[in-house]
Amino acid sequence: MRRLPPLAALRAFEAAARRLSFKDAAEELGVTPTAVSHQIRRLEEGLGVALFVRGPRQVALTPKGEALLPPLRRAFDAMAEAAEEARRRPSRRVATLSATVAFTAKLLVPKAARFREINPDWDLRLHAADGVVDLAAGEADAAIRYGIGPRPGLVGSPLMTDLFAPLASPRLGLSSPADLAHAPLIHFDWRVGAKSTTPTWRAWGEAAGVSGGDWQAGVTFNDEASAIQAAVAGQGAALLSRVLVASELASGLLVQPFGPELAGFAYEFVCPEGAGDRPAVAALRRWIEAEVAPGRQPPSDLV
Protein backbone atom coordinates (compact mmCIF):
# COMPACT_ATOMS: atom_id res chain seq x y z
CA MET A 1 0.00 0.00 0.00
CA ARG A 2 1.44 3.38 -1.04
CA ARG A 3 1.95 6.02 1.65
CA LEU A 4 1.81 9.24 -0.34
CA PRO A 5 1.41 12.85 0.76
CA PRO A 6 -1.73 14.62 -0.50
CA LEU A 7 -1.65 15.04 -4.29
CA ALA A 8 -2.64 18.72 -4.04
CA ALA A 9 0.37 19.38 -1.82
CA LEU A 10 2.74 17.58 -4.19
CA ARG A 11 1.34 19.54 -7.17
CA ALA A 12 1.77 22.83 -5.34
CA PHE A 13 5.37 22.00 -4.42
CA GLU A 14 6.29 20.83 -7.93
CA ALA A 15 4.89 23.96 -9.58
CA ALA A 16 6.47 26.33 -7.04
CA ALA A 17 9.82 24.53 -7.12
CA ARG A 18 9.91 24.52 -10.90
CA ARG A 19 9.10 28.23 -11.11
CA LEU A 20 10.75 29.30 -7.82
CA SER A 21 7.68 31.43 -7.20
CA PHE A 22 4.55 30.83 -5.15
CA LYS A 23 2.75 33.49 -7.19
CA ASP A 24 3.58 31.91 -10.56
CA ALA A 25 2.67 28.48 -9.23
CA ALA A 26 -0.69 29.84 -8.07
CA GLU A 27 -1.41 31.21 -11.56
CA GLU A 28 -0.54 27.86 -13.14
CA LEU A 29 -2.75 25.91 -10.75
CA GLY A 30 -5.63 28.40 -10.73
CA VAL A 31 -5.47 29.06 -6.98
CA THR A 32 -4.24 31.85 -4.71
CA PRO A 33 -0.61 32.24 -3.54
CA THR A 34 -1.87 31.74 0.00
CA ALA A 35 -3.33 28.35 -0.99
CA VAL A 36 0.00 27.32 -2.53
CA SER A 37 1.86 28.39 0.59
CA HIS A 38 -0.58 26.44 2.77
CA GLN A 39 -0.21 23.25 0.72
CA ILE A 40 3.59 23.44 0.76
CA ARG A 41 3.61 24.04 4.52
CA ARG A 42 1.35 21.00 4.90
CA LEU A 43 3.77 18.91 2.83
CA GLU A 44 6.78 20.07 4.85
CA GLU A 45 5.03 19.21 8.09
CA GLY A 46 4.07 15.79 6.79
CA LEU A 47 7.63 15.02 5.63
CA GLY A 48 9.26 16.65 8.63
CA VAL A 49 11.71 18.67 6.49
CA ALA A 50 11.96 22.18 5.08
CA LEU A 51 11.68 22.32 1.31
CA PHE A 52 12.00 26.08 0.73
CA VAL A 53 14.06 28.91 2.11
CA ARG A 54 11.58 31.79 2.20
CA GLY A 55 12.89 35.33 1.63
CA PRO A 56 11.05 38.65 1.60
CA ARG A 57 10.75 38.72 -2.22
CA GLN A 58 11.78 35.26 -3.40
CA VAL A 59 12.06 31.63 -2.40
CA ALA A 60 14.82 29.08 -2.89
CA LEU A 61 14.95 25.32 -2.59
CA THR A 62 16.66 23.62 0.28
CA PRO A 63 18.81 20.55 -0.48
CA LYS A 64 15.82 18.36 0.43
CA GLY A 65 13.63 20.37 -1.95
CA GLU A 66 16.19 20.08 -4.76
CA ALA A 67 16.29 16.31 -4.28
CA LEU A 68 12.51 16.01 -4.29
CA LEU A 69 11.83 18.08 -7.43
CA PRO A 70 13.28 15.87 -10.25
CA PRO A 71 11.38 12.65 -9.45
CA LEU A 72 8.17 14.57 -8.81
CA ARG A 73 8.54 16.41 -12.10
CA ARG A 74 9.05 13.14 -13.97
CA ALA A 75 6.05 11.64 -12.25
CA PHE A 76 3.74 14.54 -13.16
CA ASP A 77 5.08 14.57 -16.73
CA ALA A 78 4.30 10.84 -17.00
CA MET A 79 0.77 11.35 -15.65
CA ALA A 80 0.19 14.18 -18.12
CA GLU A 81 1.39 12.02 -21.02
CA ALA A 82 -0.80 9.12 -19.90
CA ALA A 83 -3.85 11.37 -19.69
CA GLU A 84 -3.15 12.81 -23.14
CA GLU A 85 -2.74 9.32 -24.60
CA ALA A 86 -6.07 8.30 -23.09
CA ARG A 87 -7.71 11.32 -24.70
CA ARG A 88 -6.19 10.54 -28.09
CA ARG A 89 -6.91 6.81 -28.09
CA PRO A 90 -10.40 6.03 -29.42
CA SER A 91 -12.36 3.80 -27.10
CA ARG A 92 -13.07 0.35 -28.51
CA ARG A 93 -16.64 -0.81 -28.70
CA VAL A 94 -17.56 -4.46 -28.31
CA ALA A 95 -20.48 -6.23 -30.01
CA THR A 96 -21.48 -9.62 -28.53
CA LEU A 97 -23.23 -12.30 -30.55
CA SER A 98 -24.58 -15.51 -29.05
CA ALA A 99 -25.06 -18.74 -31.00
CA THR A 100 -24.91 -22.47 -30.46
CA VAL A 101 -21.53 -24.11 -30.08
CA ALA A 102 -21.79 -25.80 -33.48
CA PHE A 103 -22.97 -22.68 -35.35
CA THR A 104 -20.23 -20.61 -33.72
CA ALA A 105 -17.48 -23.09 -34.55
CA LYS A 106 -18.58 -23.91 -38.08
CA LEU A 107 -19.93 -20.61 -39.42
CA LEU A 108 -18.90 -17.71 -37.18
CA VAL A 109 -15.29 -18.46 -36.26
CA PRO A 110 -14.09 -18.83 -39.88
CA LYS A 111 -15.56 -15.38 -40.67
CA ALA A 112 -14.56 -13.61 -37.45
CA ALA A 113 -11.63 -11.70 -38.98
CA ARG A 114 -13.94 -10.06 -41.49
CA PHE A 115 -15.97 -8.46 -38.70
CA ARG A 116 -13.26 -5.86 -38.04
CA GLU A 117 -12.92 -5.15 -41.76
CA ILE A 118 -16.63 -4.44 -42.04
CA ASN A 119 -16.82 -2.61 -38.68
CA PRO A 120 -13.40 -0.96 -38.10
CA ASP A 121 -14.37 0.71 -34.82
CA TRP A 122 -15.75 -2.44 -33.23
CA ASP A 123 -14.44 -5.56 -31.54
CA LEU A 124 -16.33 -8.85 -31.74
CA ARG A 125 -17.17 -11.16 -28.85
CA LEU A 126 -18.63 -14.56 -29.67
CA HIS A 127 -20.69 -16.24 -26.95
CA ALA A 128 -20.95 -19.95 -27.79
CA ALA A 129 -23.59 -21.78 -25.76
CA ASP A 130 -26.34 -24.26 -26.51
CA GLY A 131 -28.47 -22.74 -23.75
CA VAL A 132 -30.58 -19.67 -24.47
CA VAL A 133 -29.00 -16.45 -23.23
CA ASP A 134 -31.07 -13.59 -21.84
CA LEU A 135 -30.72 -10.80 -24.39
CA ALA A 136 -32.97 -8.47 -22.41
CA ALA A 137 -30.56 -8.74 -19.48
CA GLY A 138 -27.62 -7.76 -21.68
CA GLU A 139 -25.88 -11.14 -21.81
CA ALA A 140 -25.40 -10.50 -25.54
CA ASP A 141 -26.42 -7.81 -28.01
CA ALA A 142 -27.97 -10.27 -30.47
CA ALA A 143 -28.17 -13.99 -31.12
CA ILE A 144 -28.55 -16.58 -33.83
CA ARG A 145 -31.57 -18.68 -32.92
CA TYR A 146 -32.74 -21.90 -34.54
CA GLY A 147 -36.17 -23.47 -34.39
CA ILE A 148 -39.79 -22.44 -34.34
CA GLY A 149 -39.99 -20.24 -31.23
CA PRO A 150 -41.96 -18.51 -29.81
CA ARG A 151 -39.53 -15.78 -28.76
CA PRO A 152 -41.34 -13.26 -26.55
CA GLY A 153 -39.66 -9.87 -26.35
CA LEU A 154 -37.47 -10.54 -29.36
CA VAL A 155 -37.64 -9.62 -33.03
CA GLY A 156 -35.94 -11.69 -35.68
CA SER A 157 -35.04 -11.73 -39.34
CA PRO A 158 -34.58 -15.06 -41.17
CA LEU A 159 -31.09 -15.90 -42.40
CA MET A 160 -31.35 -19.36 -43.97
CA THR A 161 -33.30 -22.58 -43.78
CA ASP A 162 -31.75 -25.93 -43.10
CA LEU A 163 -31.73 -29.38 -44.66
CA PHE A 164 -30.62 -32.59 -42.98
CA ALA A 165 -29.08 -35.47 -44.89
CA PRO A 166 -27.29 -38.75 -44.16
CA LEU A 167 -23.60 -37.87 -44.25
CA ALA A 168 -20.48 -39.91 -43.64
CA SER A 169 -16.78 -40.06 -44.27
CA PRO A 170 -16.04 -41.44 -47.75
CA ARG A 171 -13.84 -44.02 -46.01
CA LEU A 172 -17.00 -45.87 -44.92
CA GLY A 173 -17.88 -46.61 -48.55
CA LEU A 174 -21.64 -46.13 -48.15
CA SER A 175 -23.56 -46.21 -51.44
CA SER A 176 -27.17 -47.12 -50.58
CA PRO A 177 -29.52 -47.01 -47.58
CA ALA A 178 -29.04 -50.77 -47.19
CA ASP A 179 -25.42 -50.11 -46.17
CA LEU A 180 -26.67 -48.42 -42.98
CA ALA A 181 -27.36 -51.86 -41.57
CA HIS A 182 -23.60 -52.35 -41.30
CA ALA A 183 -22.58 -48.80 -40.28
CA PRO A 184 -22.88 -47.27 -36.80
CA LEU A 185 -25.41 -44.45 -36.55
CA ILE A 186 -24.48 -41.15 -34.94
CA HIS A 187 -27.14 -39.20 -33.02
CA PHE A 188 -27.31 -35.97 -31.05
CA ASP A 189 -29.92 -34.72 -28.61
CA TRP A 190 -32.27 -32.08 -29.94
CA ARG A 191 -33.21 -29.14 -27.75
CA VAL A 192 -35.20 -27.02 -30.18
CA GLY A 193 -38.63 -27.30 -31.70
CA ALA A 194 -41.18 -30.02 -31.09
CA LYS A 195 -39.69 -33.48 -30.73
CA SER A 196 -42.15 -34.84 -33.28
CA THR A 197 -40.78 -32.55 -36.01
CA THR A 198 -37.04 -32.75 -35.37
CA PRO A 199 -34.93 -34.63 -37.95
CA THR A 200 -34.07 -38.05 -36.52
CA TRP A 201 -32.88 -41.31 -38.02
CA ARG A 202 -36.33 -42.81 -37.43
CA ALA A 203 -37.95 -39.94 -39.34
CA TRP A 204 -35.39 -40.33 -42.10
CA GLY A 205 -36.07 -44.08 -42.33
CA GLU A 206 -39.77 -43.41 -42.77
CA ALA A 207 -39.09 -40.80 -45.48
CA ALA A 208 -36.69 -43.15 -47.25
CA GLY A 209 -39.10 -46.07 -47.09
CA VAL A 210 -36.55 -48.17 -45.23
CA SER A 211 -38.11 -50.49 -42.69
CA GLY A 212 -36.73 -52.85 -40.12
CA GLY A 213 -33.73 -50.78 -39.09
CA ASP A 214 -32.73 -50.21 -35.48
CA TRP A 215 -32.78 -46.42 -35.67
CA GLN A 216 -31.93 -45.99 -31.97
CA ALA A 217 -28.66 -47.90 -32.11
CA GLY A 218 -25.27 -46.21 -32.30
CA VAL A 219 -23.52 -43.36 -30.51
CA THR A 220 -25.38 -40.34 -29.11
CA PHE A 221 -23.82 -36.95 -28.39
CA ASN A 222 -25.35 -34.07 -26.50
CA ASP A 223 -24.13 -31.48 -29.00
CA GLU A 224 -24.06 -31.16 -32.75
CA ALA A 225 -20.39 -30.19 -32.99
CA SER A 226 -19.32 -33.52 -31.48
CA ALA A 227 -21.60 -35.44 -33.84
CA ILE A 228 -20.01 -33.66 -36.81
CA GLN A 229 -16.50 -34.43 -35.55
CA ALA A 230 -17.39 -38.09 -35.06
CA ALA A 231 -18.74 -38.34 -38.61
CA VAL A 232 -15.60 -36.72 -40.06
CA ALA A 233 -13.49 -39.19 -38.07
CA GLY A 234 -15.32 -42.06 -39.77
CA GLN A 235 -17.10 -43.31 -36.66
CA GLY A 236 -20.42 -43.73 -38.43
CA ALA A 237 -23.15 -42.11 -40.49
CA ALA A 238 -24.84 -39.00 -39.09
CA LEU A 239 -27.99 -37.12 -40.00
CA LEU A 240 -26.42 -33.65 -40.14
CA SER A 241 -27.23 -30.09 -41.07
CA ARG A 242 -25.91 -29.29 -44.53
CA VAL A 243 -25.63 -25.64 -43.46
CA LEU A 244 -23.17 -26.49 -40.70
CA VAL A 245 -21.05 -28.95 -42.70
CA ALA A 246 -20.87 -27.05 -45.99
CA SER A 247 -17.08 -26.78 -45.76
CA GLU A 248 -16.67 -30.50 -45.02
CA LEU A 249 -18.86 -31.35 -48.01
CA ALA A 250 -16.92 -28.98 -50.25
CA SER A 251 -13.58 -30.44 -49.15
CA GLY A 252 -14.72 -34.06 -49.39
CA LEU A 253 -14.26 -34.82 -45.70
CA LEU A 254 -17.95 -35.76 -45.70
CA VAL A 255 -20.14 -37.06 -48.51
CA GLN A 256 -23.84 -37.52 -48.95
CA PRO A 257 -24.08 -40.98 -50.56
CA PHE A 258 -27.86 -40.99 -50.90
CA GLY A 259 -31.09 -39.24 -49.99
CA PRO A 260 -33.62 -38.27 -49.04
CA GLU A 261 -33.10 -34.99 -47.22
CA LEU A 262 -35.29 -33.80 -44.36
CA ALA A 263 -36.41 -30.22 -43.93
CA GLY A 264 -34.99 -28.47 -40.90
CA PHE A 265 -35.89 -25.16 -39.31
CA ALA A 266 -34.87 -21.58 -40.00
CA TYR A 267 -31.92 -19.74 -38.53
CA GLU A 268 -32.80 -16.22 -37.40
CA PHE A 269 -30.83 -13.18 -36.31
CA VAL A 270 -32.67 -11.95 -33.20
CA CYS A 271 -32.37 -8.98 -30.86
CA PRO A 272 -34.59 -7.44 -28.17
CA GLU A 273 -37.62 -5.49 -29.32
CA GLY A 274 -36.64 -1.88 -30.02
CA ALA A 275 -32.91 -2.72 -30.20
CA GLY A 276 -32.62 -3.08 -33.96
CA ASP A 277 -31.08 0.38 -34.38
CA ARG A 278 -28.53 0.02 -31.58
CA PRO A 279 -24.99 0.41 -32.96
CA ALA A 280 -23.82 -2.98 -31.66
CA VAL A 281 -26.79 -4.79 -33.19
CA ALA A 282 -26.33 -2.96 -36.49
CA ALA A 283 -22.64 -3.89 -36.59
CA LEU A 284 -23.44 -7.57 -36.00
CA ARG A 285 -26.21 -7.55 -38.59
CA ARG A 286 -23.88 -6.02 -41.24
CA TRP A 287 -21.34 -8.77 -40.65
CA ILE A 288 -23.84 -11.63 -40.59
CA GLU A 289 -25.67 -10.54 -43.72
CA ALA A 290 -22.46 -9.86 -45.65
CA GLU A 291 -20.32 -12.80 -44.64
CA VAL A 292 -22.14 -15.54 -42.77
CA ALA A 293 -25.54 -15.80 -44.41
CA PRO A 294 -25.78 -13.54 -47.47
CA GLY A 295 -29.28 -14.65 -48.44
CA ARG A 296 -28.27 -18.21 -49.12
CA GLN A 297 -30.10 -21.49 -48.88
CA PRO A 298 -28.41 -24.71 -47.75
CA PRO A 299 -26.45 -26.44 -50.52
CA SER A 300 -28.03 -29.55 -51.92
CA ASP A 301 -26.68 -32.05 -54.42
CA LEU A 302 -29.71 -34.32 -54.33
CA VAL A 303 -33.08 -32.80 -55.09
Automatic annotation (TrEMBL):
GO terms for biological process: DNA-templated transcription. Pfam families: HTH_1, LysR_substrate. It comes from the Bacteria. The keyword Nucleotidyltransferase does not apply. Keywords: DNA-binding, Transcription, Transcription regulation. Residues 5-62 form the HTH lysR-type domain. This is LysR family transcriptional regulator. It comes from Methylopila jiangsuensis.
